Structures are given as structure tokens and as C-alpha cells.
Predict the 3D structure of the following.
Amino acid sequence: MQNQMTLDLGIEEKVDVRSLIVHGDIERETPKAKRDQPAPEFERILMDGADCAFRRRCGNRSQMLVLLVTQGQYYVTDERTGSRHALTTARLGTFCKGATGDALTPPWSAHPLQDYDAKGRAAVVALLNSGDFREMCKRDMVVFVNEEVDTLLCRQPTV
């Protein structure tokens, strides 16, 4: 049995409701309005030696960026679903989007994570995955990355 309806267009024609839904033959009178996204809020939730964790809240979403350098674990987790994703350059950039101030400053960097451009974020991920860096952090040999090296990871200064 098919559901049919008559359109009030002055034309006596029956239209299959299913075809209207599946094929989208009816145009919307007004386009969908974009919802305004609230500004994300960031907070530092762990700072212990070289290890750190940050929380990003935006609307009803809450994510955590976990950088356990001494354990070699770096991931972004969705607190609502519990899903955990390995840290990549793209995920780091997405997590830091909209951040201001120094809330996302890890203990081993003089600059907040959002200050790094794409190449700098790639260098941060590579640094975190470096076995030598992990061993140095385990032995408390790293407090801050050398200012010159840290500056190279950041965006190029304008002259």
C-alpha cells in the first residue's frame, strides 16, 4: 500500500509521498539556518612533570588532549562517547582551534600549542614520538625546550 497525497497547486495530481522523501522533489522555502557555535573553553587538568592534559568544551562536546610523555601515550578522547584517537598533526590542530591565552601550554614548551603552524604541529607530534625526548623527560632532564628550537617550531616571525 502506498501513501499518496494531493498537492494544493490547482492541479489534481496524486504524488507518492515516499518519492518526495527519497528524491527530495519538494524544495525548501527557506534554507536551514546555521547554528552559532559557542566559543570553546579550555582548561589545564593535569600538569605533572612533562605529562599534561587539557580539556576543550564547546557546546555539549567535551574532549581531552592527553600528553603522557613519560608513558609514551598521546591521544585525544571524546568524553561523551569515550572514543580515543591517537594524536596526529590534524587532531592537534583541530583541538587547538579557537584557543587563546596560555591554557594550552605544555610544561616542556615556552609557547602554547595553538601558536604553532602546521609544520610546527607536525614537529611537536614528531618530538613527542621521539624515544630520546621521552627518555629525557623520564629523567627530568627537560624543563623547557631550548628557546631557539621552540621558536623554530612556531610560526615564522614577521619582519
About this structure: The longest strand covers residues 41-48. The first helix runs from residue 17 to 23.
